[in-house]
Amino acid sequence: MKRRLTTAVASASVAAALLLAAPVAAQAYVPTSPDTVTVTVTSNGPVPVPGFQPGAEVTFTLVGRGVTGANIATASLPVTSASVTKTADASGSATAVVTLPANPSGSYTLAATGARADSNGGGSNGGSSNALPATGVNGESLMGIYIGGGALVLAGATVAVAAKVRRNRAENKA
User: Fold this and answer.
1) Using CA atoms in the order 162, 164, 170, 173, what is the torsion angle rounded to 10 degrees?
2) Residue 6: what pLDDT?
3) Closest-CA residue to 96 (of 74, 111, 118, 117)
4) Is the pLDDT of residue 103 over 80?
5) Contact 62/81 with Cβ under 8 angstroms?
6) How far is 84 from 59, CA to CA, in rounded Å?
7) What are phi and psi of 28, to 5 degrees?
8) pTM of structure
9) pLDDT mean over 3-16
């Protein structure tokens, strides 16, 4: 019985250590701001995005599996991103020409970030670009699993130590 408990505690500790040490898959950068428009891309070709100030610099970021600067793809590559900057025309439309990988898999998102024509400068930060970043844990993260797993490992270790102390006391009295 003593050996089984020790083995179980050791196995649980190793499993917890592997869970916490496992690398989290890197996520490609997708710009997010009030001045960002996101479009799902399903085919090759030009993707016009209207609504920018005429002459504004617009940064397009393509995110998807196998995306590189040259859009070279391999099926086993992780989700990555590539960016290019274009200038909006007189009507406020900026266009990026998208070439998807030869064997596209998953979804591809094109984010266009630039000065929007419909941006009125209102809001809590008065239209300035020095707003505080969003921080904290979002619902998609694994923080809850890590905290719960750590609590379970700690509880298991506490029970194992208590059992060992009780057993040692019982042996010393005999």
Assistant:
1) -110
2) 77
3) 111
4) no
5) yes
6) 6
7) -70, 150
8) 0.48
9) 76
Type of residue at 98: V
Task: Characterize 152-167 residue by residue with b for buried, 16 or more Cβ atoms within 10 angstroms of its Cβ, and e for exposed.
Answer: ebeeeeeebeeeeeee
Q: Which structure tokens are listed for 172?
A: 């010393």
- The whole-angstrom separation of Cα 69 and Cα 57 is 19
Residues 6+ apart with CB under 8 A from 28: 63, 64, 67, 78, 79, 80, 81
